[in-house]
Amino acid sequence: MDIKTFGYLYHKARGATRDEVIKEAEISHEEYMLYEQTLGSVLQDIMQDRSRASEIGADFVRLSRYVYGEASDQEKQITRPDAIKARSGELFSLPAIGTIAIPSISLHQAIADRRSLRKYTNKQISLDELSFLLWSCSWARDFRSNERMEITFRNVPSAGSRHPLETYLYIRRVEGLRPGLYYYHPIKHCLVLLDSSPEKEAELFEGCFRQEMAATSAVNIFWTAVPYRTAWRYGQRAYRYLYLDAGHAGQNLHLAAEAIGGGACMIGAYLDELMNSALGIDGKEEFVIYIATVGKKDFLSES
Ligand SMILES: Cc1cc2nc3c(=O)[nH]c(=O)nc-3n(C[C@H](O)[C@H](O)[C@H](O)COP(=O)(O)O)c2cc1C
User: Fold this and answer.
1) Burial code of 208-220, b = ≥16 C-beta within 10 A, e = fewer?
2) Ligand 1: does its nearest atom lie under 6 Å from the Cβ of 249?
3) Domain boundaries, the chain
């Protein structure tokens, strides 16, 4: 779904008139007519779900209470899922964790100085700094695998150490790396190039609802969740944990970004369908859960 299609559906579902839809979704009259002819059944599905959607938050909290829990797949001894979803492509190793010069600012200072940073300088992030950022939020310090359990341990906590998050990056200004969409392998601590086309950058920016910082940052990080990794152990309650886990990754990244003289801004407002298709994931077995923009700080004019 592109941003125009979304705009049409969103405003239409809220009862906007034809002229309002054309104005708000920034579409032409011809596009409006085309959507009217082709998106009827999609709109109908959305309208049908609307009453459920208006209750889903409270229902989710209520129905994911332990009292409703059924035996999990782990309890039923169903084969365990893998701990990471490896992607194939051209590999780029990152400086090893033990060799990078970790910037020294105090934890007190990192916490006190952290702000959402939405304006960045044109300065590049070094490979050491990128390695450090990923170490803080996504790197796996340990990996254990046997027939019954496969598990990683990272610098962020995760319910049952299931670590359902995968990490993708759009790199714009990192020393020695060409711009493009990469996947981060948390065990090998390397990047896999997935797509270096300029169209991908534009698609990801649209997916962030064209929020400016997503186009001016040095790096954007997209965390996806693979829910079954956690649901295998915790059933539907796992969905609570996915979002809690993502928050930990986001905060560690925030603090690490401060330590390299930069900053981050989290993005929760994104177009799910477009983000998922841009990353080549199905939106159900794996979906985008949290996004962060990162770049260097202009110490003269912070915001
Ligand atoms: C879950 C979450 C989603 C957010 N989504 C956005 C977003 O889409 N766009 C944005 O500009 N800021 C976003 N933010 C940043 C908040 O606006 C910001 O944290 C808040 O205004 C407080 O400012 P501070 O981070 O500087 O303390 C998000 C923050 C969180 C935690």
Assistant:
1) beebebbebbbbb
2) no
3) 3-54, 77-296
